[in-house]
Amino acid sequence: MKKFWQNLPDKTKGYFLTLVGVLAMSNVYIFSKAALQELQLPQFGFYWFLTGLFLSLLLAWQQKSFKKLKTFKRKDFALFFLFGLIEIASTTFFFKAISTMPNPSIVAFMGNITPVFVLILGFFILHERFNKLEILGILTTLSAAFLLSYNPKWVHLNEIFIDGSLYVLIFALFGATSAILMKLNVVRFSPILLTINRTLFLFLFALLMMRLQNLSFHISQTALKNVLIGAFLGPFLTATVGLYAIKYIEVSRKAILSSTKGLFVLIGSYLYFKKIPGNLQIIGGILSIIGVTLIITGKRLLQKNTGKI
Q1: Taking the model in full, what pTM does it have?
Q2: Burial degree of 61 (CB within 10 A; 0-12, 13-18, 19+)
Q3: Which residues pair with 150 in a beta bridge?
Q4: Which residue in 28, 94, 199, 281 has a CA-CA distance of 20 to 30 Å to 100?
Q5: Alpha carbon 123 to chain centroid distance?
Q6: Cα(294)–Cα(272) distance, rounded to whole angstroms?
Q7: 288 neighbors 112 (Cβ within 8 angstroms)
Q8: Handedness of CA 224, 226, 228, 234 (dihedral sign)
Q9: Residue bearing the bigger pLDDT, 84 or 13
């Protein structure tokens, strides 16, 4: 099996790993939604990231990844700390959105707004340019986000967007910030060490919040089952596979494929919760995928024209 994997072309490896990551992440929305119906967010986070951390440490030990820490400089550890803080903010709002919104597929589709924030931050911080295709992609994605978050039953102005929409925007903004910081630094971190750093920070934060809120460590068997399955798929499999995928294919190709996860979440939501978004939200979901594709395609054309690809 190992020899078969080694003989595969890099692009095939990248596409396969990306597909595995998309399918795993799609199920994260389902199982986390199910678990959060029974648990407080800190309780959920404690068991979710404890499981992910345990699995990641096992993999790192098997691969002898900790040897790379000996080569780290003070700047590298400072970046790990900063990435950990950003992950706490981003992931907390991500799960608050899943807990609050009626259908997890809306969160998945709205999350496609992240590339828009990456472009905007890149414009102000990295002084990157937009081309016409990217601008069209931004407008399409923003239109999609409006349709996805729009509440057709609103009466008062503060009810025009469905609950949880703001949480999605916040976690997308922090996710984009993390992407820009990674781009600014040429330090190449091991994917599994990045996964461990992320899950460690989130586990410790969840533990701290449980202590501060005096929450019980006892949870039901059903909640524990959903957490264990989701944690294997999320903090461990999705994070690790996604980071390894970009070793074999361009981040842009991975981003386009990842933007389709909402379609899988849509199917899962119907099968698991018997819920399906409204027509406007389905249109918004399709537009969000088109918007991301336009943005990534525009970025690739710009890089090609400037000789940076």
Answers
A1: 0.84
A2: exposed
A3: 161
A4: 199
A5: 22
A6: 32
A7: yes
A8: negative
A9: 84
Q: CB within 8 A of 167, min separation 6: which ones?
A: 93, 94, 96, 97, 100
* Nearest CA-CA partner of 178 in 82, 101, 97, 95: 82
> Domain-by-domain residue ranges, the chain?
11-305
pLDDT of residue 252: 62
Interval 93-133: pLDDT, tens: 999 999 999 899 999 999 999 888 988 888 888 777 788 89
Q: For residues 59 and 62, what is the distance between their CA atoms, to the nearest angstrom?
A: 5
Amino acid identity for residue 298 in this structure: G
Lowest mean pLDDT among 69-73, 104-108, 210-214, 280-284: 69-73
307 pLDDT above the threshold of 60: no
**Residues 251, 275: Cα–Cα separation, whole Å:** 32
